[in-house]
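Researcher: Sit down with what I've pasted below and flag anything odd:
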Amino acid sequence: MRHRSLRQQVTLLVGVLCFALVCIVAVGAAYIAQSRVRGIVMAHEAQQAAVIAKILDRGMFERYREARNLAAMPALKAIWTGEPANIRQTLEQIQASYPDYAWIGYVTPDGTVQAATQGMLEGQSVQARPWFQDGLKGPAVGDVHEAKLLAKLLGPAPNNEPFRFVDVAAPVRDDAGRIVGVIGVHLSWIWADETRQSILGNRYHEDGRSIWILSADGTMLLGPQIGSRPFPDEHLLSMRQAKAGAFEDVSGPEAMLTGFAVAEGYRDYPGLGWIVVSRQPDSIAFAATRGIVWMILGLGCAIAAIGLVCALIIARGVVRPLQTIIEAANRIGRDPAITQLPRVTGSLEIVQLSSALRSLLRRAGAAEQQVIATSSQHAKDVSTLRHLAETDALSGLLNRRGFSLLADDAFSLYRRYERPLAVLILDIDHFKTVNDTYGHVAGDTVIRSVGAALTKALRTSDKVARFGGEEFVVLVHEVDSGGIITVAQNLRRAVEALTIEHQDQRITVTISVGGAMARRSDEDVQEVIERADSALYRAKAAGRNRVVIDGMQIQLASAVA
């Protein structure tokens, strides 16, 4: 170093220092970015698995409830003991309302299929089938399996895989409580695959993302190599114990960020213990991170080059032009009148440095404006997505997610300040008849009209949401036990007085209302909703077009609130 010029020494030292700093910053940025991205992606995969598990559980709950209600419906008792043709017609109408029902049958207590959709398996014995044996004991759900007899009758599945089904069964009893038959439903497992595809879309083929569904014992039900066991027993045990979470799976040729959630059932549907697994390759998750690291390296190299130029100028003793630049640069940000560096004369290097710094300031200003514009657009996009996520697309009301956020906040205020709070659950009576008579488009019109009528009849402080199907829920603030009956009756009368016009047809409907007041003993708002839901069942059982508030007598349709 003693025999080198000052310019060479400064240039060499600055070059080494700049290169070292760029490497340190790039490595640090890569580590931080990958750590944060890994956490974000794993949380996303776990959340996605949990969402799918809830969708599966609630979908199975609906099928479980439909089979149970079908078997227990008083209006159908005469049909079950009637002609097979009438039973078949009823079953086919039910199948038409939900195409994923691959087969519905009515079986006599000796195991003979008396009537079924499309006449399939009629006259054959299913006495040895587990779903029939369990259905004699009570409402039951069976895990995914192949049905060879039905597969032959139904033909190949749309995805060219063997037909597989989930069984739902419920006993049919006469007025004396004796079992006179069993309703059996085979739900096509294609339903689960369609749910998966609706969430993944084309990404399943484009970037290696995948969603698996495993049985309670870890057998692959949906995914590659159906029937295999992708995880060892100890790993499955930890997943079932944790219920939900995420991990990095390094057992395959490529590391996979993996989230999981155990489907534990919903309400009185016990669940089958399915394990939903959502996976994403590390290479896809960290693609953006690698781009950021290369950008940092490029920017660091550019800054290092500028440092070398500055070092050369300083080493050559060009102090005065540099001092001019330094003084002007120091005033930028302090003196509003100074927004740009002055042009200086001198050596070519000084002129180039002056020009480069002025260009850098211009680029920095342009980049700052772009960042501000991007941040503003991002905020708007987030707001729009949040609104879409919390709004029911058909009725324009809050959906279950949006309602839950409001309800949790309202319950917290109730627990803190003891401000009265109540929940009403409303269900359109005989809504299936509307769909069967006028069509599903008319049914959608009815749902929108009922939602608008409920909104109009409520105070602005009360909130109404659509929970799905023909079910609505209302959050009522600042109301006592007498006032909640008044609110419920007002809503019931508003719908009863509603005349809905659809394609020259005039449709009228009624609603049944169940409600509950929040109590100090409630752990969360879900307990209030469950009591309101139970009250709704009592209103339905009492003849519909009724109001039932938990802990109070049934309010008849003609009662004056």
In short: The first helix runs from residue 6 to 72. The longest strand covers residues 164-173. The chain has a mean pLDDT of 82.
